[in-house]
Amino acid sequence: MKTDCTPTLFEFEPIEKRRVEAAFDGGVMTSNAGDLLLWRLDQGMDLSKRVAACFSDRRDPARIEHALQSMIAQRVHGIALGMEDLIDHHQFRHDPVVQVLTGKTEAKRSDCAVGAGQHTLNRLENAPLEGVDRHHKITVDETRIEKLFLDLFLDAKGKTPKEFVIIDFDATDFPLHGRQEDRFFHGYYDTHCYLPLYAFCGGHLLAAKLRPSNIDGSAGTLEEIIRIVAHLRSRWPRVKILIRGDSGFARDAIMTWCEENKVDFLFGMARNERLQKILAPELAEAKRQSAESGKAARVFKDFRYRTLTSWTTSRRVVGKAEQTLLGSNPRFVVTSLAPEAHEAKPLYENLYCARGDMENRIKEQQLGLFADRMSAHAMRANQIRLWLASFAYVLIHQFRRVGLRWGRLANAQVETIQSKIFKVAAWVRISVRRIRFGMASSHPWQQEFALADALIRQRYPSPG
Hints:
Elements: E1 10-15, E2 18-22, E3 29-30, H1 35-45, H2 47-52, E4 55-57, H3 68-80, H4 89-92, H5 96-102, H6 118-125, E5 138-140, H7 142-157, E6 165-171, E7 174-175, E8 184-186, E9 191-194, E10 197-201, E11 204-209, H8 221-235, E12 241-245, H9 252-260, E13 264-269, H10 273-278, H11 280-293, E14 297-305, E15 315-324, E16 327-328, E17 331-335, H12 344-352, H13 357-368, H14 379-403, H15 414-422, E18 426-430, E19 435-439, H16 446-459
Parallel strand pairs: 6-12, 12-13
Antiparallel strand pairs: 1-2, 3-18, 4-5, 6-10, 7-9, 8-9, 10-11, 13-17, 14-15, 15-16, 15-17, 18-19
Helix pairs in contact: 1-14, 1-16, 3-14, 7-14
């Protein structure tokens, strides 16, 4: 007896005496045709190729169906298209877009798809560090991965910047819902989580380091600063660098190193009784101004300050005495910047508060690219997942900088770019001479698509 009840033809209410029908018989199609633009950019940046060079592949070449570079391209582009987990590649490996990413229209073996499946990609994400396990055919070089993020940033920026290169550091939480390795409870976030450390320069991602949560929020930051500053100065010897972060990074060791190595810093400071006592006259003045105007008022104070035990020297501190309609709101920052060049009010309002934009970049990673998808048991595998999501972000951010800079989507978030540019329906015709993607004629963002293609071609000319 036949048990398959799935209809092959779907009928709906007629329109103007015409029957409305639907069926899954449209032939070879894709909903990801916009990824062709990302692939053009990927080739221009050599992104997938450069990421693959950070891995070692000791598999037998005669038996390889899915090349390492193809696997990385498939995974990174899958994340960029909104596929959060490896199981999504069970279907995505058959997508015609994957044929473009892998550079082949047919698999070598009849029992394989053109793209890699979830189990093959899982071996990629569980690659151990180089030299740790000789039984694994694919291994990863952590140092080369970290260096690549900086090289991609330097390539994107080009010439030595005339102004400060501002490097923002921040920590966030990646909630854990299983029994992952190095899983700990964090009191502030009230959950079991990892505590990754991010470094950004504007929208450029410089570092994404996974850490357990049973540590101080600034742990490992100084080592990252030393590594990043050394790499930037190797290309830009005279570059001016400013390290910026919230109060969790105002540690004496970090500030002392910056002072000794001619690197400026600007960090938030946690309030205490001594600081609030110093700012008391300004708080009283802000309260008076607010009472007279009926609006919030701010008064700033510039002074030297040293902690009782934790700092080895006194430093410049700027206090913001703010009175809102809900009460007083004093805030403090510590900096190495000279008051002659950076007055208190613009230092706080324009320079320090701008660091909040970094949180938007982290949200793009988490909400649009699933960087917090920590579903592997091993922390090493979750770190590789974070790196792959980070490379997807680097690719999309460069797409936004190059391809969308003159259009309506110049400042669009990752999710908006995914839905309006990358998710384009198309039928696909494969012949001896070409693979043709026939995209929807009614697509509302055709002009942005065409402009992005032209700008990417201009920025990364084809070798031919």
